[in-house]
């Protein structure tokens, strides 16, 4: 019985061959992990980079980062040069994109390269020259204690020191140059807001001696062509529909002609600037520039169809109703030797809503 009992107390491990201590330790480690499969394995041993132990390798990385920043600066300068030098209508063939705008291709390529090189340079700097030592920091509450704040400041100063930002002047200066030049790409794009208008908004094609041409018949107008109570649209002599700048010019020079009984005209200036009751006013509404085109014969009122601004053509085209801020500008007219209606100058004030800030 004693022998049988002794055999029963022998463990299975006793029948296994002896193992070296290292294997036993390894087995013990496995058994510990099996006890808690979610145990923190800890950080692996830190391995130094070549740049950490070889200053020549660090210098090579520094020069590489600086080269990327310098190339970024050149790409930004290329962006600006492309924007200035390449015509907006120039088309080139680029495989496999096909025929595309040369300006868009150059702008996209140079700006993309400039931004990529700044990012690539920063990544290469961080991966090869900044400290890569793993740091463990316990989580803390949102409201930091003074001790934590001091630690953050100390960590920041340590990180700044380890990054070599103050010591590696070549990287620092080229990075400053690249980052400073990139915003210039956006500055030069302001050119697309258009050239400075100068006095273009204040002047139209109307000049002394310019004939009033019927917009429908393309013929110069005579007084007898305009009946009392009728509404006629006109444009300046010499402005044709197939002109390249027709839309820009007609938007300022479009004219609305109405013939009234001279006795119905209340405003003295309007009467002096008319011819036998024929008055000429800008067709462009002084609210947002819509074409005024609805005329009420009995009241001599003209209505803008966009926002219902109403003007009295018998009283200096003053505003009767609606959001328009000031009357329609009047064009002074007369008849030339051949009997055609002509302008005696330009509008006295700018047409449309462009000068909304003028006194009302």
Fold and architecture overview:
- Residues 1-22 have a biased composition (Basic and acidic residues).
- Residues 1-47 are annotated as: Disordered.
- Pfam families: QcrA_N, Rieske.
- The chain has 360 residues and is α+β, with helices and mostly antiparallel strands.
- It folds into two domains: 50-134 and 143-193, no CATH class; 200-344, Rieske [2Fe-2S] iron-sulphur domain (Rieske Iron-sulfur Protein, 3-layer Sandwich).
- The protein is 37% helix and 15% strand.
- The chain has a seven-stranded antiparallel β-sheet with strand order 11-6-5-4-3-13-12.
- β1 (91-94) and β2 form a beta hairpin.
- α4 runs antiparallel to α5 (102-128) and α4 runs parallel beside α7.
As residue ranges, the low-confidence spans are 1-17, 19-32
Distance between the termini: 125 Å
CATH superfamily of the largest domain: Rieske [2Fe-2S] iron-sulphur domain
Helix content: 25-40%
If you compute it from the alpha carbons, what radius of gyration comes out, rounded to the nearest whole angstrom?
42 Å
Strand and helix map with partners:
Layout: H1 2-8, H2 21-35, H3 50-53, H4 55-85, E1 91-94, E2 98-101, H5 102-128, H6 146-163, H7 169-181, H8 184-188, E3 208-214, E4 231-236, H9 246-253, E5 255-259, H10 268-272, E6 278-282, E7 294-296, E8 301-303, E9 310-312, E10 318-321, E11 330-331, E12 333-335, E13 341-344
Antiparallel strand pairs: 1-2, 3-4, 3-13, 4-5, 5-6, 6-11, 7-8, 8-9, 9-10, 12-13
Helix pairs in contact: 4-5, 4-7
Main location: membrane
Subcellular location: Cell membrane
Biased composition (Basic and acidic residues): 1-22
